[in-house]
Structure formats: C-alpha cells, structure tokens
Design a protein that fits this description.
470 residues; alpha+beta; Uridine Diphospho-n-acetylenolpyruvylglucosamine Reductase, domain 2; Uridine Diphospho-n-acetylenolpyruvylglucosamine Reductase, domain 3; Alpha-Beta Plaits; 4 domains; seven-stranded antiparallel beta sheet; five-stranded antiparallel beta sheet; 36% helix; binds flavin-adenine dinucleotide; FAD
Length: 470
C-alpha cells in the first residue's frame, strides 16, 4: 500500500489534504519559502499522530510537524527544493483539547495544537496566568512555542517557554509515545528529557501534549509610552525601573521611529503618541490596587524625566489607550512583512550591550548599503533585538544578486552580535534559514553533541529534514 493510501486508512476522509488544499501549509509566514509536500495529515489525537509517524518512517518519508505556521525561520514548511520523497506535513490544528487545569498545583495540561490565546483564556478563567505572550498568540500553538522555545514580551519577568513547561508528551520518530506529562516542580529522576524537545524545532519528535506552569493572575497593570533620544537612555531607564519596581516590571520594549513609521503605514488607524527617534513601551503588573502601581510607575518615570533620560512620557489612562500602545508593538511583524523587503535578524546580547550593538550594527550595515534603513524592535529588558535592514521595493528589484545581499547583511549583523558575546538566534530558532550560520558560528563540540543527539533519537533522519542541522 502506498503512503497516501495508508494515511487515508488511518485518518478520516478530510484528514488528508493534497493538491491545492495544501496551499496554506507549504509556504512560510513571510511568503518567501514555497515548497512541496506529499500531503497534509490532520490527526485528532496522539494515537493518530503515532500511526502517521510510524507509516512515514516505514515508507522513508520525512515528517514536518506544523503548528500555526507563524514561525519566522522557515522551519514548519518544506524547503523550496524538492527531494525524491516528498515530506508529509503533520498539522496539529485538530488537537485543541484543554486536558486539565489543576488550580492548586498551578498547572494546565493541554493538547499541543491548542492556540496560545485559548490557553491564556482557560487559565484566566481560574485566576491563573500562562505568561508566554507574543504577537502571534491568536494563531500560534503550544507545540509551536515549545518547539521554538518562544520568548515574547514577558521574558523579563517570567522567562521564556522553557521556564514554563513542566511536562511533555512526544511521539518519537519510530512512532513510540513518550508520556512525560508530569506537573512536578521537582523531579530529579535522571536526564531531563523534556528539555531536549523544547527548542528542537520538530527535529526529534512531535510534541502532542504539554503540562504548562501557571502563575498568579496579575489584577492590575500600569502602562506608559516613553520617548527617548537614544538606546543608551533606554538602558538608564531600564536600570531605574528595575531598581524601583523589581519583579513588577513585565514589559520593556524598545522601538525606533523607522519601525513605528512602517507599522503606521501598514495600519493607518494607529497613531504614534509622540515624535522621537526612540520609543519604549513599558508595563508593570501586580496584585495590589491600580492606584499604587500607577503611582509607582509615574514616580519612577518622573524621576527619569527630571534626570534627562526621557524626552516625554505618556501613561495609558484607559484600557483602550493601553490596547492602542500594544497594537503598535504587535503590529511590527506584519509591517515588516508588507513594507518593501526587511531582512530581519533575531539577536541577543547582554542587556548592557544593547546600545553598543545597535550603534555598531547600524553603522556596519550603512557602510555597505547606504540606502538601507534600520528598523528596530527589541525586547530590550532581556537583551533581544529584532534588527531589520529595510530596502524599498525598487531598490530591491534593482539589486543584481538579492541572495548575496541577504547573506552579506546577515553576516554583517551577526558578526556584530558575535563581537559582543551575543547570539544570532535569540528566540526564533534556526529553521531552514539559519542552518549555515549555525554550522559557521556554533562551537564544534556543541555541533557534534547536537548531531549525536539527533542520530540517537532519529537515526533515519525523518524528523523535519533540513531544519536546524543541515
Ligand atoms: C506576528 C508574529 C509575532 C511573533 N512574535 C514572536 C515573539 O515575540 N517571540 C518569539 O519567540 N517568537 C515570535 N514569533 C515567532 C514564533 O516562533 C512563533 O509565533 C511561534 O513560536 C511558533 O508557533 P507555531 O505554532 O506557529 O509554530 P510553527 O511555525 O508551525 O512551527 C515552528 C517550529 O516548531 C515545530 N513544531 C510546531 N508544532 C510542533 C509540534 N507539535 N511538535 C514538534 N514540533 C512542532 C515546527 O516543525 C517548526 O520547526 C512571532 C511570529 C509572528 C508571525
């Protein structure tokens, strides 16, 4: 029996998509990588995932796990070049069950296909918080954030996905199901296998379930939009806020004027609250009453204004104003997809080196590509910078060798990160976009260990071939 027929016998009739029905699945979020797949398989539970993976393994076809397909490194869709055996994309879109909420244990157990925003809502219904939050939360899935170890806007206070996963259920490359769905904060029974699958980008197995760590739900927020003249001033404000507000500081996002102009061009209803070269969105969250939290933020911001660190400060005085500030922040990815060509790098450096990185990288890119604009949106509180090099469409079309330009920009920016002890992939992963960078920049012993782990768990190399390790 051929693989398609076999998959058709495992899944219901509408559980296998082929031909033009695959359109939304075989292209990456940017629309830059368009590949081919044998089919899309849509399992409804872990047993079906196991049967699909076993069938693919027996037939020697690759398996690409796919969540919401919002990843930014081309990891969840096939490469543009097709091999002789096309991969099967396994989409978890039909596995959306909240399995259990243990309110006393502060845990939630979910199917990996649950949408992140639905998990937020389920936790909030019980006065609990699942803190991983990002612009794609209305469409990305738990399996996707686990497999990319997504960060987002709350890492400063709560850590990234890795810090918020207690247990996993995974279908291994031979179809075996590993049940590690434990909700324990302490469990020293040997190697911590769960960590292997977090950030593995679907190269070691398919995550089918997760036990997530919950936190007390913050009852009040205080939010402000701050205007500044430089990233160095932003660092001073960060230090000041951390000193006075401690754990209550959840969000510290830096954007430059060019990035905000692109957001407003993409969503003309939005308005940047004040003109300035640099902007911050800051937010505190707490359990106390709103008045004292706002007072704490206003007092601290007032001191920063008097100290000359800020040009202006506009607190959010209503829920709608707060939402408008967040819309500007969350509009950046969509703006960068639709505004000319933005070559985006996902850098992290030690927090105090953020200003130096921004200055060095902007100068280095400008020295080679004088007409390019720098677009910056940064989770500055945790040292993560999304550094975009923007070319307008006409300049890009006139470019003799766009692929060479893409690589040149990548190398220039990543070299600046390396020089400051940074990383060329802070929260988006390696995917298919950065395999050469990993091979070039990773410590050789680290690469060797990664290859050995891959070979031990997936000896036939069927899980997400070509992703992470080329
Ligand atoms: C608007 C926007 C804003 C974003 N903001 C942020 C941000 O602030 N911080 C951040 O870290 N990222 C951000 N991202 C990128 C981020 O990586 C994804 O949004 C999210 O983590 C991916 O989830 P997904 O379900 O879409 O996964 P996909 O894109 O479908 O997959 C991503 C990777 O995970 C693998 N995978 C997916 N599901 C499974 C599974 N069940 N088992 C095994 N492997 C699986 C895939 O094979 C692939 O390697 C943003 C993306 C967008 C479009």
């Amino acid at each position: 029996m051929d693989l398609l027929t076999l998959l058709g016998s495992i899944l219901p009739r509408d559980g296998v998509l082929t031909g033009t029905d695959m359109a939304g699945y075989v292209q990456d979020w940017w629309g830059r990588q368009q590949g081919q797949a044998l089919c899309i398989a849509l399992p409804r539970d872990t047993a079906e995932v196991s049967a699909i993976v076993s069938a693919c393994a027996a037939a020697g076809h690759g398996v690409i796990p796919q969540g919401g397909n919002t990843g930014l490194t081309g990891a969840a869709s096939p490469a543009s070049t097709a091999g002789d055996r096309l991969p099967v994309i396994v989409s978890l879109a039909r596995m959306r069950r909240i399995r259990d909420i243990d309110v006393a244990n502060f845990t939630i157990s979910v199917d990996a296909g649950c949408i992140l925003a639905d998990v937020h809502a389920a936790a909030e219904a019980h006065q609990r918080l699942f803190p991983v939050s990002l612009g794609a939360e209305g469409s990305c899935q738990i399996g996707g954030i686990v497999s990319t170890n997504a960060g987002g806007t709350n890492v400063l206070r709560y850590g990234s996905t890795r810090e918020n996963v207690l247990g996993l259920e995974v279908v291994l490359p031979d179809g075996t199901v590993w049940n590690g769905m434990k909700g324990l904060r302490k469990d020293n029974t040997g190697y911590d296998l769960r960590q292997l699958f977090i950030g593995a980008e679907g190269t070691l197995g398919i995550v089918t379930g997760a036990v997530l760590k919950l936190h007390p739900l913050s009852r009040v927020h205080a939010t402000a939009w701050l205007a500044l003249d430089s990233p160095a001033s932003a660092l001073a404000v960060l230090n000041r806020l951390r000193a006075t507000c401690g754990e209550r500081l959840t969000t510290f996002e830096l954007l430059n004027a060019a990035q905000l102009a692109a957001v407003v061009a993409c969503q003309p209803k939005l308005r940047v609250p004040v003109e300035a070269p640099w902007h911050l969105l800051v937010e505190l969250a707490d359990m106390t009453e709103a008045g004292s939290l706002e007072a704490l933020l206003f007092d601290t911001v007032g001191e920063a204004l008097s100290g000359g660190e800020l040009l202006d400060a506009i607190p959010a005085t209503s829920d709608s104003q707060r939402a408008a500030y967040w819309a500007l922040r969350h509009g950046t990815a969509e703006a960068n997809r639709s505004s000319g060509v933005v070559l985006s790098a996902d850098i992290s450096v030690p927090v105090a080196s953020v200003p130096a990185f921004l200055e060095n990288a902007s100068n280095a890119v400008r020295n080679v590509f004088a007409r390019a604009t720098t677009m910056v949106v940064s989770h500055m509180g945790d040292g993560n910078i999304h550094f975009g090099t923007h070319f307008d469409t006409a300049d890009w079309q006139a470019m003799r060798d766009p692929a060479a330009t893409t690589l040149a920009v990548r190398r220039i920016v990543n070299d600046c990160a390396d020089a400051l002890g940074g990383s060329f992939s802070a929260e988006h992963g390696i995917g298919r976009k950065l395999t050469e960078e990993l091979a070039k920049r990773a410590d050789p012993a680290e690469l060797l260990l990664m290859r050995r782990i891959k070979a031990a768990i997936d000896p036939a190399g069927i899980m997400n071939p070509g992703c992470l390790l080329s």
